[in-house]
Amino acid sequence: MSAIGFEGVGLRYPDGTRALEGIDLTVPAGQLCVLLGPSGAGKSSLLAMVNGLARPTAGNVIVDGRRLDRRALREVRPRIGMIHQQFGLAPRASVATNLIAGAAATLPLWRVLSGRWPGPMMARARLLLDQVGLAPDLLARRVDQLSGGQQQRVAIARAFMLDPAIVLADEPVASLDPHHAREILALLGRQARERGATVLCSLHQIDLARDFADRIVGLRGGRIVFDGPPAALDSKGVSSLYQRFPAERAA
Ligand SMILES: Nc1ncnc2c1ncn2[C@@H]1O[C@H](COP(=O)(O)OP(=O)(O)O)[C@@H](O)[C@H]1O
Ligand SMILES: [Mg+2]
């Protein structure tokens, strides 16, 4: 499976913003690693470097022991399931079409255009809908007729269509009620522990991180300020992550 490594990684956006600096982190296969930290800490940027949406301006990102250059990215991308903050669904298409589109790279084009999906793929789509707590009769429904929480769960199901070796989840439960949020975190945990996937997931909810993460990485100002098991993140650690610096308070 696919360990993810960051070696001295820095990311500076073209406008000069330093989003990340000196990131050293290895996430082994089979681990649910949760990124915590205030808005602007660099969580989304860190995830974006694993699927090539952002390129490090210092250091290296390593997947499966290989530096993630263009060629490695082409090979790795199909094995990544990405759950975006904005769901990234096609709103006017059906739930089924959106789910199958997550697996379209493995289908011949005529299949994608015909709308007649292979039976095993439909079966998997139904199973995944069930796992994210949606009824199978939603398959035929248009995405823009679903609630925000339902759409988010469709996006999560889509990321799992190809049984990804790497799951990148950027605040995947932001618009879900606590019950469904816990179901999704449990699903991410099972993907790691039972299927050996490498799961990197940013969250705003500290309680969910505590209950479901194997490991918590705290980011602040583009640097890692905490790295350990949930039990090691005490209230002092939490406040050092989220409390403002005196200088920020004065500003
Ligand atoms: N495309 C971009 N161009 C310039 N700056 C960006 C861009 N994306 C994010 N940033 C900046 O990089 C820093 C980290 O942002 P981000 O990774 O989105 O943090 P988080 O996901 O933890 O809220 C912030 O200062 C943000 O404003
Ligand atoms: Mg973000």
Could you outline the blueprint of secondary structure elements for this entry?
Elements lengths: L3 E9 L5 E10 L4 E5 L6 H8 L7 E6 L2 E2 L2 H7 L3 E4 L11 H7 L7 H6 L4 H13 L16 H12 L6 E5 L7 H16 L4 E5 L3 H7 L2 E6 L2 E6 L6 H8 L3 H5 L1
Parallel strand pairs: 3-8, 3-9, 6-7, 7-8
Antiparallel strand pairs: 1-2, 1-4, 4-5, 9-10
Helix pairs in contact: 3-6, 5-6
The structure holds adenosine-5'-diphosphate and magnesium ion.
Magnesium ion binds next to helix 1.
The CA-CA distance between the termini, in Å, is 46 Å
Q: Spans with pLDDT under 50 lasting ≥5 residues? A: none
| Arithmetic mean of pLDDT | 90
Choose one word for the global shape: globular
Cofactors, ions and other ligands in the entry: adenosine-5'-diphosphate, magnesium ion
Beta-strand percent range: 15-25%
Tally of separate helices:
10
Give me the CATH architecture, please.
3-Layer(aba) Sandwich
What tags apply to this protein structure?
binds adenosine-5'-diphosphate; single chain; six-stranded mixed β-sheet; alpha/beta; 251 residues; binds magnesium ion; Rossmann fold
Structure report:
The chain is α/β, with parallel strands linked by helices and 251 residues long. It is built from 10 helices and 10 strands. A 6-stranded mixed beta sheet has the order 6-7-8-3-9-10, sandwiched between helices. The longest helix has 16 residues, at 178-193. Magnesium ion binds next to helix 1.
Task: Write a brief caption for the model.
By secondary structure, the protein is an alpha/beta fold. 35% of the residues lie in helices and 23% in strands.
